[in-house]
Structure formats: structure tokens, C-alpha cells
Amino acid sequence: MSHCLLLRHDDAFGPGRLVPIFRDFGIPTVVRDVAKEGPPDDLDEVRVLVLLGGSQRLAHEGRDADEYGPTPDWLAAEVESVRPMVEQDRPVLGLGLGAQILAAAAGAAQRPLTKGEGDDAEPAPFLGFDTIRLP
Predict the structure, then answer these.
(1) E-state strands within the chain
(2) Interior angle at CA 60, CA 59 and CA 61, nearest 5
(3) What is the pLDDT of residues 20-63, one digit of tens each?
(4) Is 37 helix (H, G, I), strand (E, B) or coil?
(5) Alpha carbon distance 133, 121 (integer Å)
(6) Is the CB of residue 38 less than 8 Å from the CB of residue 79?
């Protein structure tokens, strides 16, 4: 039976309303904690893959490991496990860290966000908050 697989990376970044939304459309969901269980090795029965956020960051060229902490070993393995979904043009949604994983699985370079250009470029914050007003 096909289902939606939600990959959680951090307890603070859960699926929220996604599970009930998929349930309302008749799509069963499975939430997998990648940090504890590791990335999935078989995505054949997955109808849609959702990569949730997390406090971790992907390694990239020029990254200051002391500033952001080490990249967990399972993160690179997750990028590789997601790659076949991207190559087969199957539905994948990435949120926050999940968007970084999705971009890496699609072959995009990972680099820090900066303000300015060239020698004047300085690191820009990658985390922020804003007010959201729902209708």
C-alpha cells in the first residue's frame, strides 16, 4: 500500500498538521525519526516523501564546523536515499533542513547565505521568525 513518508530529523521539528491533512485525502502516513532510526533504504511503496526541518546543517564548502557543529553521519546517507526519488521525478517536499537535503539530492551545491557580493559578502542569518496570519 502506498503511503506518505515523513522524515523527522529533530523532535522540535515535527510533522504538525501534515499527518491530518494527508489523512483527510486518504493517504496513510508514516513518520520516521531519521536521527534515531537512520534513513530509509526502500522507498518503492512511498507515494510522497516529506523531508521535515531540523537543527542540523549539511556540510558545504567553506563551512565553519565550529560555528554550526558537526554534520551527523546519517545526513549524507539520507541525501543518497532521497536521490532515487528525485531521479525518478517522484513527489518530494523539503522544509528547512529537508529543503537542503532535497537540493543536495538533486545535485545542487550547498553554500552559506550571504549579504552583499564579492569581497564585501558577509554571512547572513539562516534562521528567523515572522508573524503568520491565517485567513
Answers:
(1) 3-8, 29-33, 46-51, 92-94, 114-115, 122-123
(2) 140
(3) 999 999 999 999 999 999 999 899 999 999 999 998 877 665 55
(4) helix
(5) 33
(6) no
Query: Helix, strand or coil for residue 114?
Result: strand
DSSP class of residue 72 equals P
pTM: 0.81
Q: How far apart are CA 49 and CA 29, in angstroms?
A: 10
Reported as a pLDDT band with limits 50, 70 and 90, residue 130 is: low
Name the DSSP letter for residue 76: H
Separation of CA 45 from chain center? 20
pLDDT at site 119:
76
- 50 contacts 70 by C-beta, under 8 angstroms: no
Mean pLDDT of 1-6: 89
Q: Which three cell numbers stand for residue 80?
A: 543518497
